[in-house]
Specification:
- Two copies of one chain form a homodimer.
- Chain A is of the alpha/beta class and 330 residues long.
- Helices cover 43% and strands 16% of the residues of chain A.
- Chain A has two domains: 219 residues, HAD superfamily/HAD-like (Rossmann fold); 71 residues, no CATH class.
- Chain A contains 13 helices and eight strands.
- In chain A, strands 1, 2, 3, 4, 5, 6, 7 and 8 form an eight-stranded mixed beta sheet that branches.
- The interface between A and B is large, with 44 and 45 residues.
């Protein structure tokens, strides 16, 4: 009888100690180098999730919002949704041969960026209308899925959904493991993201917010209309958060001036301690280096504000061990 | 040594059998009377959650949408949000004494429904504007919370959030326990529901869809504007589902013709077996009895369609053992 108790006691101690040592040694952010950036994330999470902390936040209020382009995946040499747009114009041209002689379509087909730029906002709207609207929600989803499974990035020769940031995927998981609910809040198209973002980021479609077009319902089908419903950039981000989430986030992650208002709104949370982070693209060799003077993902005013207000700034080159998930398999 | 094993074995068997017998005897819908309505719900849930079933649906696609007024809580003698509106007009009148002589405010203050009706849609918009807009999202949330904690229903003398349907609350829990994600899709105001619906229904604010006004962001604050953003009734319900969820539901629950398109859209799910349910208000004694000829929650075309298409119809009087949660405590 005594012997059994001894065995059971030893067994329990072994389990207990191995659990403790796992908890102490498993790094939740293995692709992040040690340093003040990583420490600022971990310290914040500990501060708001520790019951005894003065800054403890109940799980219901642990809302974290992430920009997508340039924050969760790359956005150069241009937004990936623009590659989709160009590929769709090319794929549709056999049905509309007149496009070969008509701007802005001609410019897209011939790679004449100046001609496309010259067609202005009206031209871009025409391109968006023929590639993103005039079909049902289900048809559009199918088109995006097919494109994502075939198209490849010109520099990396990888599918676009392979060009997501491994350190940010770890961060999403780490936050969720600590009771956070994670959202995407992107200037990109909500329905361009939903078909693949759930699989890649582990975020369900109803936690994805983005720029949207109006749809019209009839006989079981939602048809996509060439009219803007919500423009989810700059001041549109906190507005989109209000419509979809109905709560101030306590943590927000972006990389450009377009994310500034989302970070500012999070910082203005009236109830809780908050966290703001900018990804600074500093790695021309492994990804791209840009900030104040780029067309895609400009970070100028936001960078100064972040430095003045002690927001966390990720230096991609020095803070991240790897950029893309496929590097781990090489 | 042998004795210990015997004790352990007996102990294990006892635990095992008591667990099994709990699983067999615990009724997930105790406030529902046995019968074909209850059976149709349970059969559907078993059919889509049993791995071996031909109709098995993965958890990601188990989306269930619920109307609120008349489906999750009462809506008579009028929508509860209208009581809120009237109470707000009364509370604000000391600040705007001119309202005492000016329609539609005068009509509201004097309970002169004909005068209010006569002011038409324009009058209603005026009332909505002064009671629901012109303040920040946080101020409005606070106002709704305070009202909900104090105002009482004229017939039942209970707080409005006590007048939710116990059988539907059990249904929400039962679906969630079976891997469903539950949403509210209501013609009522999204920001009128969010402050209390999470607590009462266990549905987070980002899974609540409703009619919304535009907000404008500036300096950390979202201000509510007197402009409609989304009207979430009739065809607006599947449209709202598209904007917020981005997926067809597999189960939808309503009680009026305003819910018809949501149920039709769910029925048109291109991938999965689906379920549609109408709550039919047949209990004048315990709640209210109405369908084809009421101003609030009219069920006419939908009732015929449901009967022809084999949608489930709840007969409140006969299918529900209790209506409100407080009856259980009496």
């Amino acid at each position: 009888m005594k012997q059994i108790y001894k065995i059971l006691a030893t067994f329990t101690m072994v389990i207990l100690f191995s659990t403790l040592s796992i908890a102490q040694t498993t790094d939740p952010l293995p692709s992040w180098n040690e340093g003040k950036t990583k420490a600022s994330i971990i310290n914040f999470v500990k501060d708001v999730t520790t019951k005894e902390s003065a800054h403890f936040v109940a799980e219901d209020d642990r809302i974290a919002t992430f920009d997508n382009d340039g924050t969760l995946w790359s956005e150069h040499p241009m937004y990936f949704q623009l590659f989709f747009l160009i590929d769709r114009i090319k794929a549709l041209t056999p049905k509309f041969p007149e496009w070969k002689e008509k701007q802005p379509f001609k410019g897209v087909l011939e790679g004449d960026i100046e001609a496309v730029k010259k067609s202005g906002k009206k031209g871009l709207m025409k391109l968006l209308a023929v590639t993103h609207t005039g079909m049902s929600e289900d048809q559009f989803t199918k088109t995006v899925k097919e494109w994502m499974a075939t198209a490849k990035h010109p520099r990396f020769d990888r599918h676009y959904d392979e060009l997501v940031f491994q350190p940010m995927i770890e961060l999403l998981s780490y936050l969720r493991a600590n009771g956070f609910t994670t959202f995407i809040v992107s200037g990109g198209g909500i329905d361009f993201m939903r078909p693949w973002a759930s699989r890649v980021y582990g975020i369900p479609p109803y936690q994805i917010i983005g720029t949207s077009v109006k749809v019209k319902y009839e006989n079981g089908i939602n048809m996509r209309l060439p009219k803007l419903q919500h423009y989810d950039d700059k001041a549109g981000k906190p507005v989109g958060i209000h419509y979809h989430i109905g709560k101030h986030p306590i943590a927000a992650f972006g990389n450009s001036d377009g994310d500034f208002q989302m970070l500012e709104y999070t910082d203005a949370n009236p109830k809780h301690k908050t966290f703001q982070l900018y990804v600074h693209h500093t790695d021309a060799k492994r990804e791209y280096a840009y900030d104040r003077k780029t067309l895609f993902g400009k970070l100028d005013k936001g960078l100064d504000y972040a430095r003045e207000h002690n927001w966390t700034i990720v230096d991609m080159k020095n803070d991240w061990k790897v950029i893309y998930p496929y590097e781990l398999k090489q």
